[in-house]
């Protein structure tokens, strides 16, 4: 199991950070527990790294839907705030970045299921059009179309973020 953790920890942490906007040790541990419990279900025809990344992504999706996440979103401890301030020279910038990430993740979660699925696989899990097509058992053209449509929706819904950037320049 140590070998699995050593080989995959960076990628798992990146997936968790991309989904939740921050590193979450509990989620990472849950990925390894679930991986260990399901090793007998792993089939050699897929790359192990993709399999464990899929487990991580699914756990992140479950976490984002959970009440635990919603409670954590609404309550930040004083200790967390102080730690964040210590980590950056400009806490205002860090706060703004985290808020932007939350907004973007919220809009991604609001996408229709089929679009959300492909955009997450493509943008966060680095799957190719071909791999997404194989995984979801849909034509590659459908994958491209869903990604394009998801991007259009996100661009429209998040256009105010781009306006803010232009105003701050």
Secondary structure: elements and pairs:
Blueprint: H1 2-20, H2 25-37, H3 48-65, H4 67-74, H5 78-87, H6 91-110, H7 113-124, H8 129-136, H9 140-157, H10 159-168
Helix pairs in contact: 1-2, 1-3, 2-3, 7-9, 8-9
Give structural notes.
The structure is a single chain. The chain has 10 helices and no strands. The model is unreliable at 74-79 (pLDDT under 50). The longest helix is centred in the middle third of the chain and has 20 residues, at 91-110. Helices cover 80% and strands 0% of the residues. Helix 1 (2-20) packs across helix 3. It has helices at 2-20, 25-37, 48-65, 67-74, 78-87, 91-110, 113-124, 129-136, 140-157, 159-168. By secondary structure, the chain is mostly helical.
Describe the structure using short key phrases:
169 residues; 10 helices; 80% helix
Mean pLDDT: 77
Biggest sheet descriptor: none
Assembly state here? single chain
> How would you spell out the order of helices and strands?
HHHHHHHHHH
Kindly state the number of beta strands: 0
The span between the termini is 48 Å
Q: Unreliable runs, pLDDT <50, ≥5 residues?
A: 74-79
Give a summary of the structure in a few sentences:
This protein is an all-alpha fold and 169 residues long.
């Amino acid at each position: 199991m140590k070998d699995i953790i050593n080989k995959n920890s960076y990628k798992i942490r990146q997936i968790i950070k991309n989904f939740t906007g921050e590193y979450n040790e509990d989620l990472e541990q849950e990925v390894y527990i679930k991986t260990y419990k399901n090793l007998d279900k792993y089939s050699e025809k897929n790359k192990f790294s993709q399999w464990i990344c899929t487990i991580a992504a699914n756990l992140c999706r479950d976490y984002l839907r959970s009440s635990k996440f919603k409670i954590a979103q609404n309550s930040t401890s004083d200790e967390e705030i102080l730690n964040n301030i210590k980590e950056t020279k400009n806490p205002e910038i860090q706060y703004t970045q985290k808020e932007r990430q939350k907004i973007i993740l919220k809009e991604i979660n609001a996408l229709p299921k089929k679009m959300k699925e492909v955009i997450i696989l493509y943008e966060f899990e680095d799957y190719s059009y071909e791999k997404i097509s194989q995984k979801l058992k849909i034509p590659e053209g459908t994958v491209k179309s869903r990604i394009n449509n998801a991007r259009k929706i996100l661009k429209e819904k998040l256009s105010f973020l781009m306006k803010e950037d232009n105003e701050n320049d």
